Fold this protein.
Amino acid sequence: MAGPLNNMAFFQKGSQLTWVQMNNNRNTIFNGPDSPALSVQWFGKGIYAGYENGYFYIINAETGKALGKIKTGARQYGKPFTANGILYIQTEQDLFAIALPKELK
């Protein structure tokens, strides 16, 4: 579904999002919503995924644990980015700014 990006590939089957490190085949699984992922980005210690159902998930890349979800109502996502401990999520109509979870700082 996405990648390779920074030596990672992303796959989705049902509600399960799996990312695989291509250099050692280590994988991490996130059990998310039963909705297609529209956008998946990985940077720093986080995976950032926007879903067709309008939710955006912030995921710990090492554990697969969801650290937060935001109801954006969006169906299109730009590339998220961080600055000064804030995560910015671009959608087709809005820009969301939320505090980055401390595990990802």
Summary: The first strand starts at residue 2 and ends at 5. The radius of gyration is 13 Å.
